[in-house]
Predict the structure.
Amino acid sequence: MTAQKTSVPRVSVQTDDFDLSAEVAALRAGDARVGAVCTFVGTVRDRNEGDAVASMELEHYPGMTEKSIEAIIDQAVERFGLFGVRVIHRVGLLQPMDQIVLVAVTSAHRGMAYQGCEYIMDYLKSLAPFWKKEQTPQGARWVDARVSDEEALARWA
């Protein structure tokens, strides 16, 4: 099964912000099969683990990160019958309230769209090669995956 037309890239790792409405419109464009669209947008919080967060810096391994996300998308398309998928993950220095990640999927029905979106996001949080460093009043610290992220991933096994 193939997801979406080749005119819309499935994966972008970028420093620039994204426009949710424009991304969803591009993902849906010309595909009359679509009966459901599900999106998730993750943002930078101003607190984590009880501490104030002044900023977050995200790093990735170019090439490897995109390939890893493409593999996650392929699995989701096969498993949930998705028509289109768009993943944008920002890197670089971000501030509280900035958008970090977009996962958008289209399918025939809402159940498949919900599950496909959640599946991709669970894999992104746990397995995609990104490294996050927060600036707090106590200094810089690297952010590890949460136990809850690992538990969410395990239910898809």
Remarks:
- The radius of gyration is 16 Å.
- The chain has a mean pLDDT of 92.
- The chain has four helices and ten strands.
